Amino acid sequence: MARRAGAGGGEAGARPAAGATPATAALDAAGVPYALHRYPHDPAAASFGLEAAEALGVDPARVFKTLLVSTGGGLAVGLVPVARSLGLKAMAAALGVKKVEMADPAAAERRTGYVVGGISPLGQRHRSPTVIDASARDHATVFVSGGRRGLEIELAPDALARTAGASFADLATGGDRRP
């Protein structure tokens, strides 16, 4: 997978190319290969992640949603496949805290600099501890939000983890874990 054509930046502090998001700028600065996928976002969609999987014709097990949780001492980020749910006990264990709860959407937007439905695990305004469901490693590439609704980034799971400063753990519950 090649870097996105016309990608801006590459040096810290460089101005992103027109149309770039903080997520793509972070990948460009790190020299991480990725592909961008755009699709027409439907504001009436019940699930942003499932909408992306369907619009792009991708197995939902490869499309990961970015969820923020409150640890009682701050916010953390969990990534799970869009057809599954975040196990709060598993997330707490992965973070080494007693319990977590889903973060207030307004707090998530303030923390990340992104709007709900377009929150990327990359290029957030303030970096938070991040954990990716281990099922990501079942795939050569996965999809995450590109920083706006209707924009997905495809990249290797290990590259995602390195760029986001993330670890892997079994976080997802429900649904189907397909290899």
Structure in words:
The protein has a 5-stranded mixed beta sheet, with helices on both faces. The protein has a 3-stranded antiparallel beta sheet with strand order 1-8-7. The protein has a two-stranded antiparallel sheet with strand order 4-10. By secondary structure, the protein is an alpha+beta fold. The two termini are 21 Å apart. The N terminus is likely disordered. It contains 5 helices and 10 strands, in the order αβαβββαβαβββαββ.
Q: What order do the helices and strands follow? A: HEHEEEHEHEEEHEE
* Beta-strand segment tally: 10
Reported for the largest beta sheet, the result is: 5 strands, mixed
Q: Please state the oligomeric state of the protein chains shown.
A: single chain
Spans of at least 5 consecutive residues whose pLDDT stays below 50 are 2-16
Strand order of the largest sheet: 5-2-3-6-9
Intertermini distance: 21 Å
Q: Tell me, what's the shape?
A: globular
- Strand residue content: 15-25%
Task: Sum up the structure in keywords.
3-stranded antiparallel sheet; 5-stranded mixed sheet; 10 strands; 5 helices; alpha+beta; 179 residues
Short description:
This protein has 179 residues and is of the alpha+beta class. The chain has helices at residues 22-30, 48-56, 88-95, 105-112, 157-164; strands spanning 35-38, 64-70, 75-81, 85-86, 101-102, 130-133, 142-145, 151-155, 166-169, 172-173.
